Predict the 3D structure of the following.
Amino acid sequence: MLAWRENTTMGRAKDIRVKPISAQSARRIIRQLHYSRKVCSNSQLHFGVFLDGRCGGALQFGPSMDKRKVQGLVSGTRFNGFLELNRMALADWLPPNGESRAIGVCLRMIRKRYPHVEWIVSYSDATQCGDGAIYRASGFVLTSIKENKTILRMPDGSTIADITLNVGTEKWKEGNAAYWRKHGARSLPGYQLRYIYFLNPAARERLAVPVIPFRKIDEVGAAMYRGKSKGARSIEPMHPPSQVEEGGAIPTRALHATEGNKSEGD
């Protein structure tokens, strides 16, 4: 089993261990800790986060939902040349810098084990979760800020992505998103932010979209932390995002598991 440990100046965060776990274990952790309580079914790489033998979260990487479209963000990228950080969820008892530590270790492991992967893309849900402060601290660049109208509050108060309704669900089987918008569902106000990290520094020269200064997050009113907006200003509408329920990370309650149990995987 591949594991990674190194000395840093990050306090107790240096004691965090990150290693591969089974898909089943990762999904169980994500369902308990992620704010959406939803997993990404096409994730391919699953990592567990441990401190003192206790499981404190998981990260899942895999292909993007619309892979061909995302592939073009960096020209010349092969079809298997990038991954998406589909899900990240960490317990709030992990030490300061634990999030960036976990991401950093995962990225180094991917670079070492899968050298054909040149970059990682991830999305921050600034409608329900946060604006991606963890990504900024981890060396990602910001490449998109878009107004997000894809998250619906349903008549019973629950939230769901409109694409889920269009695919069909057992609970809301009466109709698609358009149907429910006519029957009481309302779009939640907010944004979606897209971040990219370059495992291969040379790939950054092929970035086909502009890098957006981080200050723009505040300027357009997209700032959010732990599901609470930091304030908004009037802006011109942006195009809605093509990705929903992707990426996102938020510290949350403890997961009672240990490194030696089933969450460790094989």
User: Anything to note?
Assistant: The longest helix spans residues 98-113. Residues 165 and 172 are 7 Å apart (CA to CA). The domain at 11-146+191-225+241-264 is CATH 3.40.630.30 (Aminopeptidase).
